[in-house]
Design a protein that fits this description.
Helices cover 37% and strands 31% of the residues. By secondary structure, the protein is of the alpha+beta class. Helix 2 packs across helix 3 and helix 6 runs parallel beside helix 7.
Length: 383
């Protein structure tokens, strides 16, 4: 049976061990060691990465009482191997996971929230709480979590005996049997967990709640901590600096500058839409119907302008169609004073590879047909 060094000290970075077994398997060899500091994964945390005997480990996993280290090469049974953890990866994951315990503990104490879902995905944690939180609640949660970091609360991990376990109130996502490992955050949380954690909250450095959304009657939070939180802050700072330079304003005035820019863009879009509408109306007024019908192809434009064009054209013809865009990406409006367009919408859309609908007098939608296909359909439809 392998001695679990990661439970004795979560900060072990290197160790030596004896190979107990080496079995060929698909993709390499599964090795058992007499002792290991490689965490095999569990509790939402991925297995450790690193090297053994100078060879990069492919994976580490636990099956029953066995811990298997997947290696691309074989090692002699009984040989001594030097093992090295990828400490940066391990430590970042511990920062994330320990931060999640702090957030969950605070939410449980304040609102009775349970953590119903937890997933460490690369550089962040997704966690689901069973209660809805306001924006003010989330700000409080982030502040209090970082206050726990600032006071450097201690983390304690241990395996209580049955009598002690039965006397304790602790969080757990599922019913547990056998030996239970508890993780306590001083003054904050007590939770069943099998993963390595920091020893002091100060090691986490910083906790950021980046996003929050309602999820199945509760709240889904996106969390970053430690080095990942710092890197996120650096990315955001770089973005703010770039925006500040592009807008020629200090960072504290970026929001005002962006709002001013949006207002200007909105006014310009309105002016452009009005010019488009006037241009299309001019085209509609000057067009001469063929067999009491008109067909227009125009550049991308506002749908309101396209509808205005069709309505004007219908003052001098019984049937009008206007297509805005290009081959494969059209927006269309068809209007008629003589044909029930709603009754014909299915066959029209089939002919122009489109989708849409409307009333008996007017239908609208999108189409992917080429202009030549539309013109061929139109000749048969209105002729």
């Amino acid at each position: 049976m392998t001695e679990k060094l990661y439970y004795q000290d979560s900060h072990i970075r290197s160790f030596s061990a004896t190979v107990l077994s080496c079995t060929a398997c698909e993709g390499g060899y599964d090795l058992e060691l007499n002792a290991t500091a490689f965490f095999p994964g569990g509790g939402g945390q991925l297995c450790d990465e690193g090297s053994m005997g100078g060879v990069r480990l492919l994976s580490v996993r636990e099956e029953g009482e066995h811990i298997y280290h997947r290696s691309p090469v074989a090692f002699a049974v009984g040989s001594e191997v030097q093992c090295e953890l990828d400490w940066d990866v391990r430590f970042r994951r511990m920062q994330l996971h320990s931060a999640e315990h702090i957030i969950s503990g605070l939410a449980h104490t304040r609102w009775g929230a349970e953590n119903s879902g937890f997933h460490m995905n690369g550089e962040f944690v997704t966690m689901d709480l069973t209660v809805e939180l306001t924006e003010e609640d989330i700000l409080w949660l982030e502040r209090e979590a970082n206050a726990v970091v600032c006071r450097n609360a201690a983390f304690r991990t241990w395996f209580p005996d049955r009598a002690e376990l039965d006397s304790l109130s602790y969080r757990s996502k599922k019913e547990l049997s056998g030996q239970v490992r508890l993780v306590a955050v001083e003054g904050v949380d007590l939770c069943a967990c099998c993963a390595p954690h920091v020893q002091l909250a100060g090691e986490i450095g910083c906790i950021r709640l980046l996003d929050a959304m309602r999820h199945r009657g509760g709240m889904r939070l996106i969390l970053r901590a430690g080095s990942y939180a710092l890197e996120e802050q650096q990315r955001q700072s770089a973005i703010l600096a770039s925006l500040s330079a592009a807008l020629s304003v200090p960072q504290e005035r970026i929001l005002d500058a962006v709002q001013k820019l949006l207002n200007t863009v909105g006014e310009q879009k309105h002016s452009i839409a009005e010019l488009q509408k006037q241009s299309l109306e001019t085209i509609a007024r000057s067009a001469e119907p063929v067999n009491d019908a008109l067909l227009f192809f125009v550049e991308d434009c506002d749908r309101e302008a396209l509808r205005s064009m069709v309505n004007l054209a219908l003052e001098k013809c019984a049937l009008c169609a206007a297509f805005a865009g290009r081959d494969g990406a059209w927006q269309y409006i068809l209007g008629s004073r003589s044909i029930d367009l709603r009754a014909n919408a299915k066959s029209i859309n089939a002919a122009i590879h489109g989708k849409g609908g409307g009333s008996a007098q007017m239908i609208q939608g999108s189409a992917t047909a080429a202009r030549a296909e539309i013109e061929a359909f139109w000749e048969g439809f209105h002729g």
